[in-house]
Design goal:
439 residues; alpha/beta; 8-stranded mixed β-sheet; 6-stranded antiparallel β-sheet; 14 helices; binds aspartic acid
Amino acid sequence: MATKTIVCKFGGTSLASAEQFRKVKEIIQADSARRIVVASAPGKRFDEDIKVTDLLIDCCGRAQRGEDYTAVLQTIQNRFQQIIDELGVSMDLESEMNGIRQHLEAGPEIAYMVSRGEYLNSMILAQYLGFTFVDPAWCVCFDEDGVLDAAMTQRTMGAALKPLHGAVVAGFYGADSAGAIRTFSRGGSDITGSLAARAISADLYENWTDVSGLLAADPRIVNEPRTVDYLSYRELRTLSYMGASVLHSDAVRPAARVGIPINIRNTNRPQDAGTMIVGQLPEGRKNAVITGVAGRRGMSVIQVEKVMVSDGAGFSARMLDILKNRGIPFEQCLTGIDTISLVIRSDRLDACKTELLEEIRSTLHPDTLNVKENLSMIAVVGEAESGYRNATVRVLKALTDAGIEINTINQGAGSLNLLIGVAEDRYQDAIRAVYSVLG
Ligand code: ASP
């Protein structure tokens, strides 16, 4: 029987101190399937602490401006030295730091500097676990524009990791074909984990962080919201887009393409099952009809009314062309018999509102043209195949009962995927009202 393989990614708070490293080791040793580990740089140990990645950015900026960076570099060295000493790991940090000093003197590059947090932390973790250290500069491949080469990465990462029985891969960076270090955007170690899982066709991608999974609503708005047990890749996309943050948005695709489940786990509470993100719910498992609610503030709606809009072919296309030519993305396009409503982020609209409205007026000659501002969008998602219509009714009733006016509503075909526009000042009330009917 083929042995099971789990790729585990540990985030910055999970590897912020020696105490956290010990928890990580216990987790790894609890299951022999956990043989590929992806590590972040040390994160915050307490609220006012500074992440090593931020210290590295600061250090590099100072060096580039010709300012004194020695104190910041020393702080970084001290953080790693403390972890090494407390764990009793043997590692020549001094010679690694000398390499970084030489780089800073020769002409600092931000990508290289910022990657050193993951590089050093992963080396320490590999030593501590007795695993092989894998430098992603050799197997996470970027093109010359700094864009990930997914196909090449899959081949090289697969070749590098498959033979290893215990490996720690540094997260967050790779290199281009000229050998220059390139990084993902912030939080990108999640992507490295997903790429590794795909490259070795892992059975599971565990993403270990400091929360026990995705919450069904924002805890700053809803008191102690419940944790979502199961979530589909698509639902996660919608909720993350709307602001729920638990995983880097680019981290879903590599694992999702080949159907590898992603399990969000808490390093400080390994007994919690966390959230399982899957393509399809396991056999016999019934999810709540409404999985979660999230929202985004700062939206505006442009409403164009013209009698018989729907009869005039190309009207909507011309409207969208105007936006496209100005490089303004829109969030939703809602069309009625005689109306088109475009939901646009207010910051994008405000930059060119007067000229844009003028262009719409002179090109399309609408009967009326209105802009509604200070709106928020609420996203309600659920995967249940039947019963979602009933769920829509429940959500709308909850909003009406709370006296919240619904400005726009958008429900695509298929599973529950409701987007509702409400006034900004009722945003929190709306989230609470929807949460009250989750079930
Ligand atoms: N250390 C990087 C950051 O702070 C990448 C990561 O942790 O995923 O963004």
